Amino acid sequence: MSENRIIAELQELNLSYLMLVQKLIAEDRDTAMFRLKIDEDLADLIEGLSAKELTLLARQPHSLLKPSLGPVEQLQAVLGNKRDTGMQQTHLAMLMASV
Predict the structure, then answer these.
(1) Which Gene3D superfamilies does the annotation name (predicted)?
(2) In whole angstroms, what is the distance from residue 76 CA to residue 64 CA?
(3) What is the 3 state secondary structure string of 34-97?
(4) Taking the model in full, what pTM does it have?
(5) pLDDT in tens, 63-74
């Protein structure tokens, strides 16, 4: 895959992500802030961005997404547990919320 294609896909992902974040904030601000791990100032800024501003921000050749999966050891422990006790989803949710 060419570098130009990778950058174009990254920009498309950025725009989709920003639009989703804006939608989540509009629908349920407190939950969005918690799930996205953003503060009120950033939520205000993103919520107020126009389509032109969203596009400008998304067109950066860098990812706006930052994985927040927690410490590798903890994630490996949850995912690598061979005894599925039905609690894997709960443990993953707790890990993600604590990061």
Answers:
(1) Flagellar transcriptional activator FlhD (1.10.4000.10)
(2) 25
(3) HHHCCCHHHHHHHHHCCHHHHHHHHCCCCCCCCCCCCCHHHHHHHHCCCCCCCCHHHHHHHHHH
(4) 0.75
(5) 888 777 677 888
